Amino acid sequence: MASLPLCRSPSSLLPSWPHRPVSASFHPKSSSSPVAAQVSVQDLPPQDPAPPADSRPNGTGPGSSNTRYLWVNPNSPRAAGVVRARAGSGRRSRLASAAAALGACEPDEAAVAAALEAAFPELPSEQDAVIVLNTAAAARPETAALALRWFLANAGVRRKAILYNVVLKLLRKKRRWSETEALWGEMLREGVQPDNATFSTIISCARACGLPSKAVEWFEKMPEFGCSPDMLTYSAVIDAYGRAGNAEAALRLYDRARAEKWQLDPVICSTVIKIHSTTGNFDGALNVFEEMKAAGVKPNLVVYNTMLDAMGRAMRPWVVKTIHREMVDQQVQPSKATYSCLLHAYTRARYGEDAMAVYRLMKDEAMDIDVVHYNMLLSMCADIGYVDEAEEIFRDMKASMDSRSKPDSWSYSSMVTLYSSTTNVLGAEGILNEMVGAGFKPNIFVLTSLIRCYGKAGRTDDVVRSFGMLEDLGISPDDRFCGCLLSVAGNTPAEELGKVINCIERSNAQLGAVVKLLVDRSASSESFREAASELLSNARGVVKMPYCNCLMDLCVNLNRMEKACALLDAAQQLGIYANIQTRTQTQWSLHLRGLSVGAALTTLHVWMNDLYTALQNGGEGLPPLLGIHTGQGKNTYSDRGLATMFEARLKELDAPFHEAPDKAGWFLTTSVAAKHWLETKKASELVAV
């Protein structure tokens, strides 16, 4: 393509044009000529008289000056482009000035009208209105509606819905819901037909303003105005249905999206995962996560965090670890919410090492950790006996400069519980003193843990003193506290038992009466059974089994086996102990997991009597295999695991049950060995107390 020549020709070459010149600034590419140039498509540049050659600086040619000219043939196609560029530059400048004036004026109808009339002496176009509204109202959204009305009345607008949509988007950006509803009403009064963009904008505005029910309401209006939702609208509405609690509608739309092969996006998938998680359908949440990856949708940070939260709620820490590993592999940068989900998942599942690893990573990155997360960690440490780790966390809390991280009453309660579980009396008392010194009153959880600690240490008088603190503070004993006193009674020597029974009676008169019947040798087993049945029938579901376990511990310790068996029978009648015994053609099993030591021994006593009875009816009645399932790990009612204690007990009885090498927590024997052992023992000797 030929270049445009720089022209310094004398005016005689072409006749002068009578038209007004149109020119624009031009800067030559050559860095050695830093002079301005004028571009003209009409007349030639004016010619100055040529100075003498010796007066020209640096040997420049004739006509050299600080201004250079570029002439363009008006018949060339380039001429139209130059004119358009010149006109476009002027229009942009005019619109920018109009937007600035509109943005600076007060949100008053007269002020807005004056600013726009000064900016547009001629009729503005529809595009002019869109540009000005977008630019000016972004800074001053209060003027948006006023400017809109002026443009609708004074501009050449053919599609009024476009201008309304511009202002609606601006209101959405500023989250002005009341103004959005008002503008919608004005739109309808003016007879303007809303389009898909109108509804999509209003729906997303309602969602951004935290009004999911409003988003659903506008979505359901769309057919009334002849509008069909697009994919973006469906995405917003699925999320809105989920936030509004209408899980069924959200899942119905999601199923439609899958059936019609819509392009899924992370927003839809995150919402559906959250819906499944909220309703407890954790397998459904995992399926959506896998489906979106199979469909080529890359999970973002929100999706990963939603999945981590869902699997934490599902108590599936192994899945949490897998998802987190995938997140790291995909180089998705974790946020504070990510670490919060990980801590929640690992602490709930008592994954101590993983929880502490996340905690130390958060410390290394100087991330804010509030008291809620600290308390989750302390509660976990108290349950699994992480003494050193809990002390480290508690020190960090006290050393923190952030008031949101300082220990609260729950923090002190967890530390007392921790020291109680390890029978560290001095540690528990020290934390209690710190708690009082920090201005917190001991609550019922602290006193319950303290009494348990004193009971395990055999300090009955301190148990009574702590019970007096409960009364002094005006705290009413609850079921958990009464269960703790029962547990302490089960380990209290007979000569001091009356002190604890007195505390039980003052806490719960009905429970105290049952304990007195248990201790009284003259009271019949039947009267004790009836009183215990009435107590358990009226008790809350969560405390029925703990009450039974503790009462049977007390029966065994006081050598009240007949009453223990009566209590076990009453508990089975009430459905408290379900499926303790199972029978198949090949194996009879006794399931003791979750029982206290006394309850387990009582159940074993009854089971051995049943086996003895079956043997008396004929040895063929026994199956080939007999098994006792104690479970493994720490027992709630004992410092040692039930399996460890039971193994020792079976050896004392010379019972032929042996721990199964391939089934942890199981003790097995054959019918032949069991028959030989039962024949050498009388039923009353099977469990010596």
Tell me about this structure.
- The protein has 689 residues and is mainly alpha-helical.
- The chain is 61% helix and 5% strand.
- It contains 31 helices and eight strands.
- It has helices at residues 77-104, 109-119, 126-139, 144-154, 160-173, 177-189, 196-208, 212-221, 231-244, 247-259, 266-278, 282-294, 301-313, 317-329, 336-348, 352-364, 371-384, 387-399, 409-421, 425-437, 444-456, 460-472, 479-490, 497-507, 509-519, 525-538, 541-557, 561-573, 597-616, 642-652, 671-680; strands at 25-26, 36-40, 67-71, 581-583, 587-591, 625-629, 658-659, 666-670.
- It has a five-stranded mixed β-sheet. Strands 1-2-3 form a three-stranded mixed β-sheet, with no helix packed on it.
- α5 packs parallel to α7 (196-208), α13 runs antiparallel to α14 and α27 (541-557) packs antiparallel against α28 (561-573).
- It is elongated.
